[in-house]
Specification:
The complex is a heterodimer of chains A (179) and B (559). Chain A has 2 domains: 85 residues, ACT domain (Alpha-Beta Plaits), CATH 3.30.70.260; 73 residues, ACT-like. Chain A, domain 2 (Alpha-Beta Plaits). The longest helix of chain A is centred in the C-terminal third of the chain and has 13 residues. Chain A is of the alpha+beta class. In chain A, the strands form 2 sheets. In chain A, strands 5, 6, 7, 8 and 9 form a 5-stranded antiparallel beta sheet that branches. Chain A has a 4-stranded antiparallel beta sheet with strand order 2-3-1-4, covered by helices on one side. With 559 residues, chain B is an alpha/beta fold. Chain B folds into 3 domains: 161 residues, Thiamin diphosphate (ThDP)-binding fold, Pyr/PP domains (Rossmann fold), CATH 3.40.50.970; 166 residues, Rossmann fold (3-Layer(aba) Sandwich); 170 residues, Rossmann fold, CATH 3.40.50. In chain B, strands 2-1-3-4-6-5 form a 6-stranded parallel beta sheet, sandwiched between helices. In chain B, helix 7 links the parallel strand 5 and strand 6. The longest helix of chain B has 15 residues. The chains are: A alpha+beta (179), B alpha/beta (559). Chains A and B meet through helix 1 and helix 2 of A and helix 9 of B.
Chain lengths: 179, 559
Amino acid sequence: MGAADMVRLEDLHVSRTLSGRKHVLSILVENRPGVLARVSGLFSRRGFNIDTLAVGPTEDPAISRITLTLDGAVHPIDQVTKQLHKLINVLKIRDMEPDDSVAREMALFKVSAAVENRAEIVQFAEIFRAKIVDVSRRALIVEVTGSHDKIEAFESMLRPHGLLEMVRTGEVALARGGD
Amino acid sequence: MRAADALMESLKHEGVDHIFGIPGGANLPTYDALVDADLRHVQVMHEQAGGHAAEGYAHASGKVGVAFGTSGPGATNLVTAIADAMMDSVPTVFITGQVRTELIGTDGFQEADIVGVTLPIVKHSLLCTEADHIPQYIHEAFHIASTGRPGPVLVDVPTDLSKEEIEYSPPTGPVELPGYRPNLEGNSKQIRIAAKAVANARRPIVYSGGGVVNANASEELREFVTCDNFPITSTLMGLGAFPADHPQWLGMLGMHGTRTANYGMDEADLIIAIGARFDDRITGKLSEFAPNAKFIHIDIDPAEISKNVPAHIPIVGDAKRVLPKLTREYRSLQTDTARLEGWWSRIKAWQDEYPLTYEPGTEGEIKPQFMVEMMHKVTGGDAIITSDVGQHQMWAAQYYGFNKPRRWINSGGLGTMGFGLPSAIGAKVACPDEEVVCLAGDGSLIMNIQELATAVNQDVPVKIFLQNNGYMGMVRQWQELFWDERYSGVENGPSPDWVKLAEAFGAKGLRCDDSADLEEMMEATIAHDGPALLDVRTSPRENCYPMIPAGNAARDMVG
């Protein structure tokens, strides 16, 4: 049978669909009304669960960037990106590999800070390179930027002191290198 | 020129001849522009039906179907048709009026956020925020609706913008959209690998779908299937792309497909899926679907590949371009047709043992399957058949034997009852020289029966063959088989009198309740010069078999 022998059915395999790790998708979209609704609507109707979502402008005013994280242990990322590509306003999608990208998140923590606790909180803040951005009689607001894990760690340090409120931006990311 | 007139010019530039719709407050400027535009407007009785008529027009002609509706309820009435066009990939453009720009968001009279409402069920949608956008968006809409995987595009036009004066000159080149570039050609290396896999398959089967019809790739499909002795089955939406009278045809597959087709999928070692999407009505229990097979999946929509069933050899491309390459690659290999002989003897054994069949009726009884066979005879097997949704739809798919594409128009994905009559009107408008017959069910037909007025008023001589069993037949069948015969909400009762109803609309009404008269009555219906409805009283409790009960595997077919 000659060349046909080179492809044997028993040698055909499918690639794994679940990666088992967290993915950061960086999505460039046209800056038009309703685009975010299209993206988030797609996720809800296909049953994909977004962990974090951040939207903002890019260097080109006609283009916005949506950065979202989702769990590749639950969702086939390949299917998610293919569905996203079907949206006409989606220009480019990049699945940010952890080794080839920089991902950061910012958080604000309002911590109850009685006089006797303040020194310790300030010390934690220094260790984590966080900043005290508001001080009042009963509370401090601390701003911290870093990787998802760093912010989780910082939160767990602050929590015993009485975490009154917190807000996190969700991760934003850029690929390393010049392209 | 006035933006509404520019809208008409842009429609004409896109090759539009016919529009289905209803005017209202917010699209008054559009309808005013229609007076001087050289376009045929088919005034329907309900926007949903206008949408289905646009779908029928698109299915029959391959052109983009266009429907108009006003804001608010006019637009929301289109929703079912839009969802239907999305599920079945029907190239359609829906143009809705919207309240004045300054009223948007104020809950103005007849305001509905139709772009928001339809977000999950459109290929794309465009809300005009400036008058200049209107013609530009129309061109974008036609480009998106008709290329790649076709689908519905909605353009929402606020009434004040339609009245503004704008500059319009027709586009000189193709529409360019940075985020939309369908991949048509297929990867040559993948196609070569696919050909080699086919050459090594001993039990291959071709599984084709509606994508082949959409791609106008019937000839290319036939070339491939007959370049060796490959057996072929097809989905409900793909019927007609390969001739049903061909010896390599196994019949439809899936829930009400033939045993041969389903057993063939079950035992195949290689499935060549072309323009099909492994819907649950095809696969049944996914974990037991085609357990011995490897999959080649050819589709223009990359998201369909490996969505439900992982593909071993994915090929993204237009069937019309990919299939000739696959055929060429396959022919270049040294293959041995004799390797398929064992497979064909297995298939022929199934065909002999399990032909599509039914118990003949008692004296005078009209069996629904017999009615479809008679319909084939009377129309020479060459009519455009539209259908509603239910048992009659499955019997038509099983027994009509479609030999050409675009002859079978039905609602496959969404399963929209009431689709048959309006889509028949659309098909007849697109193909006035073809015989167009709507095979209807009594539960479905009533849902859009008002369109009989459209057929009469607009002189669209469609024929309705009503398969009247007095039940929501498919639901009744499920209640009988799977719900302990606890019948609930499935008896249709004595109303309406269909003959009088047809006559009230100004159409011809006929009734047949004896199988001996059926042929003559059908011929009389076809011969009538105008819209006509033949009320055929069929066996009330006939079940549609064979059947894969929902959630079961192909080898567990019953009946």
